[in-house]
Amino acid sequence: MRLDKMLANSGIGSRKEVKKLLKSGGVTVNGKMVKDAKIHVDPETDDVQLFDEPVEYREFIYLMMNKPDGVVSATEDKRDETVIDLLDDKHKHFEPHPVGRLDKDTEGFLLLTNDGQLSHQLLSPKHHVPKTYFAHIKGQVTEEDIKAFANGVTLDDGYVTKPGELVILSSGEESDIELTITEGKFHQVKRMFLAVGKEVLYLKRLSMGPLKLDESLELGEYRELTEEEVSILKGN
């Protein structure tokens, strides 16, 4: 691959920043100074160093974001700001994509990666990856709703959902709940509550699979997953 791509994929910086480092003479390949960004190197066999420190190439990137309201879960959009717009250039360079979707007005846990195999694993219906949401509901959520969700409810298009685990945190004219589901139909949580005559006023995803949202992340912030979190996510 091109030297500038390899360096950028090593977390050193954006392509622009990498080109500055090359011009400064700080990069050597197999002991020889290289300033040409276009030369090709093999990350497995070539010894690439930056200021005498070995460069470790990374193919994949894994990010956890606390998605804010008003931002769309897409790689590009002509009208709205996307989750990719919130990333630094050094992470954009990897061309990550959101794993699944969160509605524009839904906040919370969103995973972004360029690892297509992991994305497929997490989104495949046959793997039944659980996702847990917190919601503020207009209307009194009852034990009947818990039973209905446990059996699966019929959505407006006739689709019967897989069983969901509904937990009531508080119940009154407005209620707070947590709901765990294993599928991700369009607007599913909102439509499940509409099916029992209630309205979702606020929705936040708390977790996906074994990973929970890092509560230290402010809305719009993100961080790379730790090696342990990536391993857990992959089921290792």
Lay out the secondary structure:
Elements: H1 3-8, H2 15-23, E1 27-29, E2 32-33, E3 48-50, E4 53-54, E5 62-67, H3 89-92, E6 97-98, E7 107-113, H4 116-123, E8 131-138, H5 143-151, E9 165-170, E10 174-181, H6 188-195, E11 199-208, E12 211-212, E13 222-224, H7 227-233
Parallel strand pairs: 7-11
Antiparallel strand pairs: 1-2, 1-3, 3-4, 5-7, 5-13, 6-7, 8-10, 8-11, 9-10, 11-12
EC number: 5.4.99.-
Enzyme class: isomerase
Organism: Domibacillus antri
Task: Write up what this structure looks like.
There is one protein chain. The protein has helices at residues 3-8, 15-23, 89-92, 116-123, 143-151, 188-195, 227-233, and strands at 27-29, 32-33, 48-50, 53-54, 62-67, 97-98, 107-113, 131-138, 165-170, 174-181, 199-208, 211-212, 222-224. It is α+β, with helices and mostly antiparallel strands and 236 residues long. The protein folds into three domains: 3-54, Structural Genomics Hypothetical 15.5 Kd Protein In mrcA-pckA Intergenic Region, Chain A; 62-125 and 214-233, Pseudouridine synthase I, catalytic domain, N-terminal subdomain (Alpha-Beta Plaits); 130-208, Alpha-Beta Plaits, CATH 3.30.70.1560. Strands 5, 6, 7, 8, 9, 10, 11, 12 and 13 form a nine-stranded mixed beta sheet that branches. The chain has a four-stranded antiparallel beta sheet with strand order 2-1-3-4, with no helix packed on it. The radius of gyration is 22 Å and the shape is elongated. The model has no long low-confidence stretch (mean pLDDT 94).
- Identify the CATH class of the largest domain: Alpha Beta
- Main beta-sheet strand count, sense and barrel state: 9 strands, mixed
Terminal CA distance reads 29 Å
Q: Classify the beta-strand content into a percent band.
A: 25-35%
CATH architecture of the largest domain: 2-Layer Sandwich
Shape: elongated
**Helicity range of the residues?**
10-25%
Task: Quickly give the structural class.
Answer: alpha+beta
Could you state the CATH homologous superfamily of the largest domain?
Answer: Pseudouridine synthase I, catalytic domain, N-terminal subdomain
Secondary structure tally: strands: 13
| Total tally of structural domains | 3
Figure out the total of helices: 7
Q: What is the string of SSEs from the N terminus onward?
A: HHEEEEEHEEHEHEEHEEEH
Instruction: Give the rounded overall mean pLDDT.
Output: 94
CATH fold title of the largest domain: Alpha-Beta Plaits
Rg value? 22 Å
Q: Residue ranges: pLDDT <50 for 5 or more in a row?
A: none
